[in-house]
Automatic annotation (TrEMBL):
Matching PANTHER family: INTEGRAL MEMBRANE EFFLUX PROTEIN-RELATED, STAPHYLOFERRIN A TRANSPORTER
Species: Isoptericola sediminis
Example of a GO cellular component annotation carried by this entry: plasma membrane
Protein name from the UniProt record: MFS transporter
Lineage top rank: taxon: Bacteria
Length: 424
């Protein structure tokens, strides 16, 4: 496939992008607002669908939120790579606003489910465009953009559900969706005025299966094959713990308030980790960030299951949340470093789709009684994560040493797809 960039679209030199501008700060606010709307929209859908008394409604909403991004993710990312990122971002946020208005104005279950699926598709486009464009903003680079994105995602996960619930309580579910529609319009307007203009890339014709599956793009990313076990393994175990932990932690916590505090401590640790990864004090390389972050998360979940004491679990949750942010920032930087700019949105959408499917599997496996009692599932989750990270680290070490004793091999290419070059 031939890649050619148009004139005037090269990335500005580092000196020109060093200082963060008011436009960049507004763009970061757009990212935060979009993430907040996305989190609150899903919670409100669950609340409104469960209140109807229709047994299949909640399941349909969850499936509509999961299935379209998994099926359409590679294609949507491919489109973002080949269109104006600014207008893709803006359009997706406006589609989200339309979905909010539609849900507020209808009681027809099938229409609500369809709008839920459409909003999930729009969310894929928003995330792909933000992933690609944030590092192009003045004052940001791949590392700081990743740090801000992970931090704002954590903040949205904390504030989004309460915001949606409070809005619904103060008005009604329909009123809350109207509030979200207004926020989405504000965010879309902000994206239209502050997002960088994406590099337009002229590409030769792409076969349909590469558009839908991204197979050719994924084959070119050796680093993805190297880190796929640990990345997907961490998604699997955290999803298993997320379901089993609902039951286990409520038995450990003496009151619902303590239970809520335990969940908040993980998010608090994630905010701290996101802040730290953007500082100069962060000397971890990309590969080390992925591994160390996954290790901290696995150990936190393992200790959670072994030591059924709320105070201890609270402490390890802060550590686990910190590792969660470090791990996620490392994944984003891994894609930035190894994927050509013309394919970044597609790869990121593909990765998100695969992780969503893995999370669904983890949610199913985490159901108490399927693999064992809730506490046993939590312990098993931590042990699986620890083993996955350890095995991946050993394989990376072996691959690096193989590169050192094979000077005739082209630089950066080692056995089994591992890429051992410097990643600072």
């Amino acid at each position: 496939m031939r890649n050619t960039e148009e004139l005037g679209t090269e990335r500005p030199p580092a000196s020109a992008r060093r200082r963060r501008t008011g436009r960049t700060r507004l763009l970061l606010a757009v990212v935060a607002t979009g993430a907040l709307v996305d989190a609150a929209f899903f919670l409100l859908l669950l609340l409104s669908s469960s209140a109807t008394g229709v047994g299949w409604f909640v399941t349909a909403v969850v499936v509509a939120n999961l299935l379209p991004p998994v099926l359409l993710g590679p294609m949507l990312g491919w489109l973002v790579d080949r269109t104006s990122g600014r207008w893709a971002w803006t359009g997706a946020l406006l589609v989200t606003a339309v979905c909010c208005l539609g849900v507020a104005g209808t009681d027809v279950s099938a229409v609500v489910v369809a709008l839920a699926g459409l909003q999930a598709v729009a969310s894929v486009v928003v995330n792909a465009a933000a992933f690609k464009l944030l590092p192009e903003s003045p004052g940001l680079d791949e590392r700081t953009a990743s740090s801000y994105a992970v931090g704002m995602g954590s903040l949205a996960a904390i504030a989004g559900p309460p915001l949606g619930a409070l809005s619904a309580g103060a008005t009604s579910n329909a009123g809350a969706f109207l509030v979200l529609a207004g926020l989405a319009v504000v965010a879309g307007t902000g994206a239209a005025t502050t997002a960088p203009r994406l590099v337009h890339v002229d590409l030769d014709a792409t076969r349909w299966h590469d558009v839908w599956l991204g197979a050719r793009t994924a084959r070119s990313l050796a680093a993805a094959r190297a880190f796929a076990p640990v990345v997907l393994g961490i998604v699997l175990i955290t999803s298993m713990e997320g379901v089993a932990g609902v039951f286990y932690l409520q038995d450990v916590a003496p009151t619902p308030f303590v239970y809520a505090c335990l969940l908040a401590l993980w998010a608090l640790g994630s905010l701290g980790g996101a802040w730290w990864t953007g500082r100069r004090a962060n000397v971890l390389g990309i590969r080390i960030s992925v591994l160390v972050g996954g290790l901290l998360m696995s150990l936190a979940i393992l200790v959670e299951g072994i030591v059924a004491v709320a105070v201890v679990i609270g402490v390890v949750f802060v550590v686990g949340g910190f590792g969660n942010a470090v791990h996620n920032v490392g994944i984003r930087q891994l894609v930035y470093q190894h994927v050509p700019r013309a394919q970044q949105a597609q790869i990121w959408s593909m990765l998100a789709a695969v992780m969503s499917g893995t999370a669904a599997l983890g949610n199913a496996l985490g159901t108490p009684g399927l693999l064992g009692p809730a506490r046993d599932v939590v312990v098993l989750s931590g042990a699986i994560g620890l083993a996955t990270v350890s095995i991946t680290a050993v394989l990376l070490l072996v691959a690096t040493r193989s590169e050192q004793v094979a000077p005739d091999r082209p630089p950066g290419i080692v056995a089994n797809g591992f890429v051992p070059h410097d990643d600072h």
